[in-house]
Amino acid sequence: MIDFSFTKAQEEFKETIRQFAREEVEPRRKVWDRESKSALPLNEKLAAWGLLKPDMDNITRGILTEEIAYVDFNAAMPLVWATLPFAVHQLPGVPEEIKRPIRERILSGKSFLAFCFGEPNAGTDMARFDTRAVKDGEEWVINGTKNTISWVDADYYFVCAKTGHEEEGVWALTNFLVPASTIGVSSPKVWGDMGSRGATRGTVHFTNVRIPLYYMVGEMGKGYILAAEFFDTNRAFIGLKCIGAAQASVDEACEYAKKRVVMEKPIAGYQAISFPLAEAQTLLEAGRWLCYKTLWKADQGERRSIDGAMCKWWIPEMTFEIVRKCLLVYGQYGYTDDLPFEQRLRDILGWQIGDGTAEPSKLIIARNMMGKEYVG
């Protein structure tokens, strides 16, 4: 059975999140962007509203993502992350007495767990990671550098490092929990990004960092599997972030087009204005349901690599172009920072890179279509 409707509870949640976003997020958007401030403190308010629940399903998390991003693109992801939707936050294998207080701090907005995958010399090719973890008695010793870390100033790091031999490729990777306060963890170097400024991004060096053996997350050599599952789901949330920002742009442009009069009639009456907006709404509807289909598969425990890859390569590119066209509806005024279009363009552009560029996602899709033996 195919059902494209939200449940009654989800519809009520959607309306409440809209109200929360208008009251708590919208007044702070420009300040957060200008001062590169994280929206993480909002988690406590979200919890006070009864909206921050770790047991919500992924469809509901998608609603949370889209509705918050409609008001502020940058506020969406830290709020979604705090609901502990990913296995990385469950820290499998780490003793309960260690991970329970960490989860509680994340859920309350007091701490954050940053995902450390990217490396200066590896990019998307995880098999070429240089960061290595070596067992020494009752400890792991980690050495290496991780970059492109979002929320690089987090309290805890989820670090993917090699524990096996080079010829094992991605099957040599294992994940570890590393508190930022551990000796040998450098102070983060924050990059001056043009967009997504609410998610401080940068580099951290790990030099002879010693952690207990029980800080290993999951099984040895299975680090890639956990990462792949994370990316497959997270790409749908990225898509919904972009869709939320683009939908706000289309709605604003439509209202402006009805009010702006040129040559004695509203510009909405000119097909040069109305047709691009109609095309944009069509594309947003298609992208939206691709994302929710991906999240539905996640809730059903089904594989979603292809769906996630489609979300990742297409939606950031498509929504960037939609926001650009909406900006042009306003003419020169749309080019100013009085309106939110320039921020949305900067923010969305970053996600044409983050979590993998378009090319690896297209490769995943092409290999599924024609077979890995035919597609390099």
List the helices and strands and how they pair.
Blueprint: H1 8-25, H2 29-35, H3 42-48, H4 58-71, H5 73-81, H6 87-90, H7 96-107, E1 113-116, E2 132-136, E3 139-150, E4 156-162, E5 173-179, E6 189-190, E7 201-212, E8 216-217, H8 223-259, E9 261-262, E10 265-266, H9 271-300, H10 305-329, H11 341-350, H12 358-370
Parallel strand pairs: 1-4
Antiparallel strand pairs: 2-3, 3-7, 4-5, 5-8, 6-7, 9-10
Description of the structure:
- This protein is an alpha+beta fold.
- The protein has three domains: about 10-85, no CATH class; about 110-220, Butyryl-CoA Dehydrogenase, subunit A, domain 2; about 225-370, Butyryl-CoA Dehydrogenase, subunit A, domain 3 (Up-down Bundle).
- It is about 50% helix and about 15% strand.
- A hairpin with a 2-residue loop joins strand 9 (about 260) and strand 10.
- Helix 4 (about 60-70) packs antiparallel against helix 5 (about 75-80), helix 4 crosses helix 8 (about 225-260) and helix 8 (about 225-260) runs parallel beside helix 10 (about 305-330).
- It is globular, with a radius of gyration of 21 Å.
- The two termini are about 35 Å apart.
- The mean pLDDT is about 90.
